[in-house]
Write a structure and sequence with these properties.
Blueprint (H helix, E strand, L loop, with lengths): L1 H4 L3 H25 L4 H18 L1 H15 L7 H8 L2 H12 L8 H21 L6 H16 L5
Helix pairs in contact: 2-3, 2-4, 3-4, 3-6, 3-7, 3-8, 4-5, 6-7, 7-8
Amino acid sequence: MISYYFSGKPELFREVGRTILTEAGAAIEASIAGELTYRGKLGAYIASQVTVVIRRPMYAQALAEIVAMAQTRQIAGLDDIARSALSVERLANLLEQGCRAGEFHSCDSRLMALAIRGAIDNVVRHHRLRNGEVDLECCARQLVDLFDRCIAAGPS
């Protein structure tokens, strides 16, 4: 039945990746949109990234495997999915807007975005390696607090 809809594995994996990224992106965007401050938006971004993994663990696993296949060139044609999954542009833009609004101190927004995404990704990876023993909700709260303290503008 699958071969009727898809010409091969690359097309199937691309569609799976697109579906996961679209659904996760919509959930994250909805969470961010509900916040009025950039500090709130950053917290919502971090928490919602982890929430997606909690609610859809198989999605997170599938996307991680698709990205790995793209990086190791096991299956050609997945580079766009991997780039989208690994992109920090949206987060870097949010950080830049927060700096302009005076809510965050001045920093290299791309480097900070990479640090945030790296922390989230490693918490999720650790959770998977420990067979779900890591409390992701607790980790999400701690990451929100950590990066809020790290980037929040101090008193003038």
